[in-house]
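User: Please check token order:
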Amino acid sequence: MQKLHAFDNVETISATVTGRVQGVGFRAATVRQAHSLKITGWVRNNADGTVEVLLQGQHEAVDQMLSWLLVGPPTARVDQVDTNEVITDRRFDRFEQI
């Protein structure tokens, strides 16, 4: 991780995805989509059956990624996506499944 500079115009968003999002390739598809949009951060399963995602990138790319999360891959059923802005001075180097 690198330090995020104020002039970078990068936003960081935390999202929790609810629905049939585990066991359907959701995390792998999220990694592919994030890479295609040049988003950094991570995705992981939570014990309660939700998927948690941390997105970092330019506003337009993060907005496109959030729109994709509302639908997910064809095998998933997304019921809800809750988001929160994260204030951080850290910059992620890549997007990964954890």
Helices lie at 26-37, 59-69. The first helix runs from residue 26 to 37.
